[in-house]
Description:
The protein has 7 helices and 7 strands. It has helices at about 20-35, 55-65, 125-130, 135-150, 155-170, 190-205, 215-230, and strands at about 65-75, 80-90, 110, 115-120, 120-125, 180-185, 210. A 5-stranded mixed sheet has the order 3-2-1-6-7, sandwiched between helices. Strands 4-5 form a two-stranded antiparallel ribbon. The longest helix is centred in the first third of the chain and has 17 residues, at about 20-35. It starts with 17 loop residues before the first helix and ends with a helix.
Amino acid sequence: MAKEKRYSEKKDVRVDFTPMVDMNMLLITFFMLCTTMIKSQTLQISLPSNEKVDKTEQNKVKQSEAVTIIVDSDLNDEGVPTKDYVYYYEGMPNVEDADKDGKIDNNIMKEIQFLGNENGKAQGIRAVLQDRNKQVVEKIAVLKEDWKAKKFHKNKAINDSIYQARAKEIRNDSTLTRPVIIIKATPNASYKSLVTALDEMQINNISRYQIDRINGTDSAMMADFLVARQK
């Protein structure tokens, strides 16, 4: 008698992913709650106002408080900046003092560098800016000591908030002697040099500054300065 063949019954295999979906949602929620949200940091730039200003008063302010910084760079054969230069002059150039060749008699433009601090003392353009913004820098230095000692509040966040608010009041205090900085860049200037100039505004607590276009007078002053330097 022939034996009866038995075949194993095949069953469909199905994996239930529902618990995994629930676990993924729990993990996403966990990471969202535990992750510190990073606030986007933006650079605040004071742009020229559209308000009408009396020309006489505007020139008076510029003569007494204005400092113009011009950044420039050397370019290699591929057009890549290789070396940065910084020039500055105080007040406004006297365009009327031009010689017969149309060149400006330039004795006010100076070349300087971005040096930062050395042995606790400001160097380069930073020293110039701190000297012009001396009253604000001194007041904020005292304020910073109180902030470090947490004299405003024992809570760090509240202490920081009070410090920032009071520092802003000092920077915007019109009773203090404050400079107006005009930053200009030549067509060859590197992006790095312009950003470094803007960083110096923050470091030196300068609230009144703007980026402006280099004009013919600035170009003539630079040309005369470079020719005189090569002699």
